[in-house]
Amino acid sequence: MRKNASLIVCLFVICVLCVPALFAGVNVSKPANNSTVQGSVPYVASATSSCDKGVGSMGIYTAPGVLAYVVNGSSLNTSLNLGPGTYKTVVEAWDNCGGAGTTPVTITVSNQTGVHIIAPSNNATVGTPVNFTATATSSCSQGVGAMGIYTAPGQLAYTVNGASMNYNLALNPGTYHAVVEEWDRCGGAATTPVTITVNGGGGSSFSNLQRSGGWGQYGQGPPNFVDCSPSPCDGISFWMAQGVNSPSMSGNAAEFNLGGSAAYSDALFNNHLIGPYSSQGMEDPNHTLVPTLHNFTYDVYFYGNNLGLSQAEEFDLNQFFDNLGFVWGHECRIAGGNEWDVWNPAAAHWIPTGIPCYPNSNSWNHLTLKVQRTSSNQLLYESITLNGVTSNLNWTFNPASYPGWYGLTVNYQQDGNYKQQPYNIYLDQLTLTYQ
């Protein structure tokens, strides 16, 4: 769908003249029933109803009569801080015709303490700098005081105050038996080891971005496709959930949902990697890194139960500096015609490539996109590889004008069909390589 220049409580109403509608269902995707959870408990759910006025609100009961959370609309995405114990929770939805539906979810909240490494994955091969993202908990009543990274026994390469870290550590090529350690304020400590291999090839990489922090979420609808947020907005509903272990390749996939009532509307998910608001700790305040980058590879696995509901799946990379915008957009039209389009930023429209795009439902699809900013400051679309089949393009376009913008960002976007039928897509092992 068209790109936009910006990237960036009433519970229910009882209608005495209406007959309560029969709920189609309350779908809870997180947490799993009978699961054990450490720390805050993520809740992700959506609801549908035969009521022609739609779902009015949703809520979470942590015990009978204890309404711990409520939100307007037909979806929720939140986390609850619960003490250790077993909870027979219930997610309930209320429609605007007086009907209601529930789904029970039993969970056990653990008081386990220790270090949880989000990135990098154990035994992963990564580029440099290596993104270390981790959190820690402790039974100490005064909490966690600091965390650190050991790259070898006795070699403390980085420390940070507090119970979380997100740091890009420059490492030479080789294999490292690293350890992330936390120190609490009662004199205790805990460690988690992670073995990584830093490759010696050209370029640096951000790996497993689907589990990174910093994702922005926006709805966009015709005719102008102006960003709206939070969900639901302008007849569009959207959400993402991280830490999904099934379906998943790494055990830590991300789930993305698009729905609502506005036909042909989209959900845009955007992450600032380098520059202001960097999720990777790379603010580049002196503007010395982004202008030097020329070659990029966007590599991802994606999965959908019914990809035929998607009008299109879009995978973008954006580079901004010197008031120029290099926007490499790739759109796999599915319901829209099973063909790859690429984005011409100067002309601000999609260009059909003639390359077919037939991803498989109910299996993981592997996509690799190679692009380049040429020495003459043009965008070069090099190749598209889907499930092992490579199509070479070597098309060039001029950049667009983006006054004042700076940085490197990555996008993923879902486009809705003519009925705006809701659907979910899972991303895993999302890696961006740059040099």
Mean pLDDT: 88
The CATH class designation of the largest domain is Mainly Beta
In the residues, how many domains can be counted?
3
Strand content: over 45%
Mind summarizing the main beta sheet?
8 strands, antiparallel
Span of the ends, CA to CA? 29 Å
Output the structural class: mainly beta
Q: What is the helix fraction of residues, given as a range?
A: under 10%
Low-confidence stretches: 5-21
Oligomer: single chain
Gyration radius, in Å: 23 Å
What's the SSE blueprint?
Layout: E1 23-30, E2 35-38, E3 41-49, E4 55-63, E5 66-72, E6 75-80, E7 85-95, E8 100-110, E9 114-119, E10 124-126, E11 130-137, E12 144-152, E13 155-161, E14 164-169, E15 174-184, E16 189-198, E17 204-206, E18 215-220, E19 236-244, E20 253-260, E21 266-274, E22 295-304, E23 312-321, E24 324-333, E25 339-344, E26 349-356, E27 365-373, E28 379-386, E29 389-397, E30 400-401, E31 407-415, E32 423-434
Parallel strand pairs: 2-8, 10-16
Antiparallel strand pairs: 1-3, 3-6, 4-5, 4-7, 7-8, 9-11, 11-14, 12-13, 12-15, 15-16, 17-32, 18-21, 19-20, 20-32, 21-31, 22-27, 22-32, 23-24, 23-31, 24-25, 24-30, 25-26, 27-28, 28-29
Note down, in words, how this protein is organized.
The chain is mainly β. A hairpin with a 5-residue loop joins strand 27 and strand 28. It is built from no helices and 32 strands. Helices cover 0% and strands 58% of the residues. The protein has strands at 23-30, 35-38, 41-49, 55-63, 66-72, 75-80, 85-95, 100-110, 114-119, 124-126, 130-137, 144-152, 155-161, 164-169, 174-184, 189-198, 204-206, 215-220, 236-244, 253-260, 266-274, 295-304, 312-321, 324-333, 339-344, 349-356, 365-373, 379-386, 389-397, 400-401, 407-415, 423-434. The protein has 3 domains: 23-110, Immunoglobulins (Immunoglobulin-like, Sandwich), CATH 2.60.40.10; 114-199, Immunoglobulin-like (Sandwich), CATH 2.60.40.10; 209-434, Jelly Rolls (Sandwich).
